[in-house]
Amino acid sequence: MPTASVGEGAQLFVIDPIAQLKPGKDSSVALMQAAERAGRPVWCTSLVDLLACGRSGPDAGTGHGTWVEARRVQCSPWCELGDVRHLPLESFAHVWMRKDPPVDEAYLYATHLLELAERHGVRVMNRPAALRAWNEKLSALRWSHLMAPTLVASRVTPLADFASQHGEVVLKPLGGRAGQGVVFASAGMPGLRALLELVTAQQTLPVMVQAFLPGVRDGDKRILLVHGEPLGAVNRVPSGDEFRSNLAVGGQPQAADLSDAELQICAALAPALQSEGLFFVGIDVIDGRLSEINVTSPTGICEVERLGAIPLADHVIERLP
Q1: Does residue 71 carry a catalytic annotation?
Q2: pLDDT band for position 98 (50/70/90)?
Q3: Catalytic-residue membership of 142
Q4: Is 69 a catalytic site residue?
Q5: Which of 102, 118, 119, 284 measures 20 to 30 Å from 199, CA to CA?
């Protein structure tokens, strides 16, 4: 695989606009800086700058294969950008798909383009097919025995019946991120059926409902795994009257170790993560129960590094295949 044009071991990050990333907070920045420390040149691009060409010859423009419009990134100090260059994806040792959700049409088409590159030997982190297959809420149902009682449905009646059975529940949109749209509800609350109609878009979209775990008040633990191995964790504690613990909605990070139950959850997930090409994953665990499996652009590196004095991003880069 040629590397001379981009640098030996070069890393390409497919990300949101780089000006939006925040050093000291954003996990993508931490990974980019760690790659640079390891002597791996760092490049960045966006979804709209991925290209594919099926023809060769003088009229093809790009030539056959998958290409990208990318810029070299100087990560320390953050950040200086080089000129845009037109490069084959095969030039890069690894391509990191780190675009934040939503997983919309643009995101899905980008995974198809990256899958074409993968067929030509490009290593994509995480694997494009797995990014499409592993909805961050639904994928946890592969291990439903490790979760709180859970139902996914579009119809109001089974959702309301589930709430009646469990008393207090949490409603989660399947496409949400960072706690957005997650709602606490109780069986006896006025307007429950109207709320269920709203979150299911009038019974046209499925929603996840889970039995509320009071232990969430003590925190929601984000565990970061590399090739199925847990490398670090941060506990996120809700602020004030908020039940959501996501850092994006005000959750407070705390240093955390892993319990035996949490290590068992990691061990249960590891074979599937390894076999399906999910190299870097963040799972959420509440009161010893698996909640979500984050595969698109897992966060938490900076908090683990700061609170646990662990060079987590360096460990991730060291474990690249």
Answers
A1: no
A2: very high
A3: no
A4: no
A5: 284
170-189 confidence digits (pLDDT tens): 999 998 776 677 899 999 89
Please identify which of the residues 127, 172, 177, 289 carries the catalytic annotation: 172
Pick the catalytic residue from 127, 177, 221, 222. Answer: 222
pLDDT digits (tens, 9 = 90+) for 206-235: 999 999 999 888 889 999 999 999 999 999
Please give the Cα distance from 81 to 22 (Å, whole number). 15
Q: Is 294 a catalytic residue?
A: yes
Pick the catalytic residue from 127, 177, 244, 289.
Answer: 244
- What's the confidence (pLDDT) of residue 246? 62
Among residues 247, 160, 144, 142, the alpha carbon closest in space to that of 199 is found at 160
Query: Can you give the pLDDT at residue 17?
Result: 95
Residue-level pLDDT at 57:
52
Q: Which two tokens stand for residue 152?
A: 């996914």
In angstroms, the Cα distances linking 127 to 15, 72, 80, 83, 179 are 15, 23, 28, 28, 25
Rounded Cα gap, residues 236 and 162, in angstroms:
27
State the sign of the Cα–Cα–Cα–Cα dihedral 272, 276, 279, 281.
negative
Note if 284 is an active site residue.
yes
Q: Which of 118, 136, 262, 284 is catalytic?
A: 284
Active site residue 292: yes
Residue 247 pLDDT more than 80? no
pLDDT, tens digit (0-9, with 9 covering 90-100), for 99-126:
999 999 999 999 999 999 999 999 999 9
- Name the pTM for this structure: 0.92
The one catalytic residue among 40, 98, 236, 289: 236
Q: Which CA distances in Å does 192 have to 42, 120, 153, 172, 243? A: 50, 52, 15, 15, 18
SS (H, E, C) 279-299: CEEEEEEECCEEEEEECCCCC
Amino acid of residue 2: P
Tell me which of 99, 137, 177, 221 is the catalytic residue: 137
Active-site annotation holds for 220: no
Active-site annotation holder among 126, 135, 246, 294: 294
- Is 244 labeled as catalytic in the residue annotation? yes
